[in-house]
Amino acid sequence: MTKMDKVEKNSSVPNPELLVVPDRLVKPHRLIRKTQIELKARTYLDKGLIPVRNTSCPHIHVSPKLLSRALRVMDTLFKYFEELGGKVEVDEEYGRYSTYVYCSDEQVQISMIEGTKMQKREGERLYGDRCEFVPTGKLIFRIDNIYGSGLRAKWSDGSRGFIEDQMVSVVDGIFKAAEAVKKQRLEREKWHRELEEKQEQKRREAEKVLLDNQAIERLEKAASDWEMSQRIRRFLEVLEQHVELNEEDKASFGEWCNWAREHADRIDPLLNFTITRAIG
Q: What letter would DSSP give residue 64?
């Protein structure tokens, strides 16, 4: 049985022949080549796995034993999507790097890891941990940004075969994930639009209340000024009828009355009325 014979049949995934994982890495994708160089140079292991934190390489977190397989699987996927017109990028956000397949312009976050298990440390240990985490020897491919969608998000070595035998299913999962991501994005955009519309409606309502309050203040002030101008004029009329002045004070009194009437005219909104001033 050839490798092509192992590719799943009756699949809607285009060009499944491109998903045959080779036995060795040939002309690796630029990101895979970079990862190969960087991870092979690392000597420190974390729970038996090569650490990938704070690296701009694709997220491949496996033991040295499975590194070659993981690189070949991811290399096949990267080349496949770029052959179909997509792209693969490692993007940084808040100091953390994530690997994305851009499928139909949607970001599908992916990673390749190796599981770990706890086992008892060999030999007698009087102090320290008696157990340790060790690699399981099984590759796990994950889609990391579709939790809660109900879609399959993990493929691993197991009863269905190795990851290499499930590539069509993996790609089909990525296509479905892209649709889910698009749906989630459209729902978020709709939610943000509705939120912005509600905020804009509240802003307009608050602005209307403010303008109404300002108009009320202008109206009440105009009414108060008109009432005061009338009171001043009536007061002057009564004052002129009842006040008794000698000849020396009449001139000064007349000037004061003229000044008071001018003040009444100045504050009288009926004499200075414009619709622009009234409505602001």
A: G
